[in-house]
Amino acid sequence: MSFQSQSLAVFTKDFRLEWRSRFGVSTVLAFIASTLLIVLFSLRADLLSVSVQSGLVWIIILFASLTTLSRVFVSESERGTMDLLRLNAPSTSVLIGKLAYNFLFTLLITGTTFLLFAIMVNMPVVRPALLLAVVMLGSSGLAGTTTMLGALVSQAVRKGAVFPVLALPLLIPLMLLLVRVTQAVFTGGESASYANDLAALVGFTGVTISASILLFDNLWED
Asked: Is residue 116 within 8 Å of 57, Cβ to Cβ?
């Protein structure tokens, strides 16, 4: 079986398991909806500045992602299928398959949150192309970081407690960049004001995914 076929098989397995139970999707959508309603009515998000609104939307996305993204490897450990996966697929194929699934799931979280938030607070999207870039880069950065950490946490004893502790310090720089670029999506500021942050997002995503590929082999074989 080729490398692409093995990666696709890992992705398809995770997708089918989620489709059967729909646990992750249901949990995330319920979290997003309830959090948005609390933010809207308790904090009067529609009256806040664009910078604060941009921060709120990414905070919601961050914690929605942390509730589910680590499970791609933790669930393997809990079901006792980790060794079977090691025997049937090389480490790179496993990582790419898991990363692709996490990216798709994060893309669903990010797109849904932005859509509902923009509708609820009536935020006009001034730069649609930039919004698409932010959503794609933000989803890639979140997926790359959480996939690698999920593999690390799956070997720990107290998996649920360890993952947020490790993830938050690594994701704070990404969140700061995303918030700054998101402000330009809704305000339409000068191109120079967000071009450097956008380039930094590309660099962060590239470094994260590259580091995951380079380091995952040692982690997977231990």
From this structure: no
